[in-house]
Design brief:
Helix content: under 10%
Structural class: mainly beta
Number of strands: 9
Number of domains: 1
Strand content: over 45%
Strand order of the largest sheet: 4-5-6-7-8-9
Order of helices and strands: EEEHEEEEEE
Number of helices: 1
Length: 142
Amino acid sequence: MELLDKNYFFIYNSARQWEPSEKPGWTIQYNVGFAIIDRKNPLRILQRSEEPLLSPTEPWEKGTAFYPAFVPNAIFAEGIKSLGNNKFVVFYGCADTTVGSATITVTKNEQTGAYSVTAQKHARILNRTPYIAQFTDGTCDI
């Protein structure tokens, strides 16, 4: 996705060893990271996340007893859309059972050239009731 400075914002999926989950023998966690790519030379990475941008923190992402999961501890980016002004919405799979969304904001420090990237999770779309979204504050939208 193109940023205001014409460089590119790129998200990717990753995996790492993690604490055991409720699924026997499962110790992998899936996350979303980011990279900023140079517009003049797309082989040059200007900045890459040292830690995941999105990690499983909500029960439906972790796959707890109340939210059974095919793949626990999983967030897997599925799509991204620009909202303008270096803001994006990303849709991600949660534990292979539901879909979540988050807003990502990219800011650039003009003095240092460093980027700051933050994510705010918003909602999960229940797979059993596909037209209802449950937001992280507990409210629902039909």
